[in-house]
Write a structure and sequence with these properties.
0% strand, 12 helices, mainly alpha
């Protein structure tokens, strides 16, 4: 790869930044969390999940599998949104959210799981596979897996409240004054792209076709821009989540070093983004001329 050394430096910077933020999260929990707090316990579990998905995304990119990384990045975004949702809520709201997360939401999932388990049980009954029948029969047991007592409309409201789209939309409109979340809904585009990849729809196949039709030099520039954008998402989401944790525990925002690393990583990525922008500029200039032919005519008259 022509730009291998540049990519390696950026990858190292990404790993350094995330390690620094991860260590800071551990310090914050060690100094501020309480073992008996369900809010703290849940946030610890979410950050642990966050860290594992980080490793998966980084590994897939290093194996030159960016589309697979995008799919896991969707889980990463979901986790980040839940962390922000809880951390930026008031203390009373946090307790309500945790009760919903482990209570009502879990019971809704049990209901859905039981319905789907029934179909699998029927298959294994037909195959006389009793060990498998036991598994799915247990999942149908209401005493083992408590179900909600909500009606369909009430269940939909709870599920929608905890969806990624609803969370980021809520935070953009209702964020704490001291923790601005303007433009956080911009993550919806990448989230939507990952959804297309998961569902293997026309948009997903168009993305594959686009890469297949690119010329070699342009394709390489596009690919490394894609890698760095995914790494930028990892670093940025870690930084925002770390800041949200500072807010939750009402402690001073991160040190200058934490921000310096974040800012430095962004600057390191700028040449790659600019190289990609330059490679696409002629295409978009032509598109603008086709869309607004009068602009070209006016330019010629002025000349």
């Amino acid at each position: 790869m022509q730009y291998a050394n540049e990519i390696n430096r950026i990858q190292d910077a990404m790993l350094h930044a995330i390690t620094l933020y991860h260590d800071e999260v551990i310090k914050i929990f060690s100094a501020n969390s309480h073992n008996e707090s369900n809010v703290d316990i849940t946030l610890k579990q979410l950050f642990h999940y966050f860290g594992d998905r980080t490793q998966a995304v980084a590994h897939l990119v290093s194996c030159e599998l960016p589309w697979d990384a995008e799919i896991i990045l969707r889980c990463f975004l979901e986790t980040a949104a839940k962390i922000w949702f809880i951390c930026l809520a008031s203390e009373d709201e946090q307790k309500t959210l945790i009760d919903e997360f482990w209570g009502i939401s879990a019971q809704i999932h049990n209901r859905k799981k039981a319905g789907k388990a029934h179909f699998s049980k029927e298959l294994f009954l037909h195959a006389n596979s009793l060990d498998n029948v036991n598994i799915f029969e247990m999942l149908e047991d209401k005493t083992e897996f408590e179900r909600d007592a909500l009606n369909k409309k009430e269940r939909k409201i709870i599920e929608q409240k905890w969806s990624f789209t609803e969370i980021v939309t809520h935070l953009e409109k209702n964020h704490p004054p001291s923790f601005p979340m303007k433009y956080v809904s911009s993550f919806l585009f990448g989230y939507d792209t990952a959804s297309h990849l998961i569902h293997v729809d026309d948009c997903a196949l168009d993305l594959m076709q686009d890469r297949a039709l690119r010329e070699a030099n342009e394709l390489e520039i596009l690919q490394i821009a894609h890698y760095t954008r995914i790494w930028s998402d990892l670093v940025g989401l870690w930084f925002i989540s770390l800041e949200a944790l500072h807010y939750k525990y009402n402690i001073p925002r991160g040190s200058k070093e934490l921000f310096r690393v974040y800012e430095g990583f962004g600057k390191l990525c700028e040449p790659i983004q600019e190289r990609f922008n330059n490679s696409q500029r002629e295409f978009y200039d032509d598109w603008k001329k086709r869309r607004n032919p009068s602009d070209k005519l006016n330019t010629n008259r002025q000349g």
